[in-house]
Amino acid sequence: MRQSFCPLPTLLAGFVAVLVGYASSAAIIWQAAASAGASTTQIAGWMTALGLAMGVSTLVLTLWNKAPVLTAWSTPGAALLVVGLQGATLNEAVGIFIFANALIVLCGITGLFARLMKLIPHSLAAAMLAGILLRFGLQAFASMQNHFLLCASMLLAWLIAKMAAPRYAVVAALVAGSMVAGLAGEVHSETLSFALVAPEFIAPHFSPALLLSVGVPFFLVTMASQNAPGFATLQAAGYTTAASPLIIVTGSLALLLSPFGVYSICIAAITAAICQSPDAHPDVAQRWRAAAAAGLFYMLAGLFGGSITSLMAALPGAWIEMLAGLALLGTLSGSLYQALGQANERDAAMVTFLTTASGVTLAGVGSAFWGLVLGGVSYALLSLARRT
C-alpha cells in the first residue's frame, strides 16, 4: 500500500518542476511565435499543444521506464527561433519544426546522436548558443531605460532568491515583476481570458534558405543544449535509461504535432533535476512518481494554455524581456565559459560567437549557420597550423 502512495513532497516536486519550466520559458516561446506573426489566439493554441505534448510524453516515458524522465520544450531552441523567424511566415515556421524534428528522429533511429556531436567541437557549439542568447541579455537590461522600477524589482528579487533559494530565482522575478506591474497599473486586465483554446493546424511550407539557416542550427542547439544535458542529468542521478528510445519517442511526438505549434519535445535537465533529487522522494526507486505528477500538471497547464497566453499579453513587454533575460542568464554564462575554456580553441570560438551575435544574413542564410561555418573553418586552419 505504501508503494502506491504519493507523498506531498513528491507531488510538490512535480508541481514546482512545471512551474519553473513555464516561468523560465513561456515568455521566450511567446516571443518566438510572435516573431513568425502568430496571433494571440494562435500562440494560445501553441501553449495548449505544448503542455499536452509534454504531459503525455512525460507520463509515457516515466511509467514505461519507472524512472523520473521529464520532458520539456527547448528553451535555447526557442531563443534561436525568436531571431531566426523574424520575417518568416507561420507556414515556414512549421516547415522548420518538421525538418528539425525529423532530423532528431533520424538521430534516434540510427544512433547518430553521439557521432554527430563529435563532429562539431563543443566549444563552437557553445559559442554559437552564446551568440544567439546574447541579444536576450542585452534586451533585458536595455529595458531598464524606460521601465526602471519594474525591471529593477525583478532583478532584485532574482538576486535575493539566488542567494537564498537559487532554484526559484526565476519564479521570484516573475512574482515580483507581476506585483510591481499590477501596482503601477501596467497590467491590461481586459485581455485576460480563461477560455480553452484548441490548437490550430498550420500547413507547412519548406523554404530551403530557412531550413539551412534556422532549421539546422535549431536542430543542433536542441540536441546539444537540451537533449545532451538531459541525458547527463538522468545518468548523474543514477538512472541508466537507453538514449535512443527516448529520442525516438520525443522526436516522433514533436514531429507529429509540429503543425500545431509543438516546435520541440526534449529530455529535460534543470526541471528534471527537481524530480530526481532526494527532496522529491528519499527512495531513488520511487522518484519516478514526482515526474509522473509533473506529467499530470503539464497536461493541466496545457488545458489552460489560453489563460497563460492571455496573461503574457496583459503584462508589459519589458516584463517579458526581463524575465526571458534572467531565465537565460545561467545558460548564457555557462555557454561562454564552455566556449572560452580551451585556450587553443578560443579564437575559433570567438569567431563563431561574434558572427552569430552579429545577426548577419548572407545568401539568405542566417548568422547561426555562418557562425558555425566560419568558426569551423577557423578551427580547422588553426589546428592545422599548430600541427605544422
TrEMBL record:
TM regions (residue ranges): 44-63, 70-88, 94-114, 119-138, 144-161, 168-185, 205-225, 246-270, 290-315, 322-340, 360-382
Pfam families noted in UniProt: BenE
InterPro entries listed in its UniProt record: Benzoate_Transporter (IPR004711)
UniProt keyword terms in alphabetical order: Membrane, Transmembrane, Transmembrane helix
Lineage top rank: taxon: Bacteria
Tagged with keyword Chloroplast: no
NCBIfam families xrefs: benE
Protein name per the record: Benzoate/H(+) symporter BenE family transporter
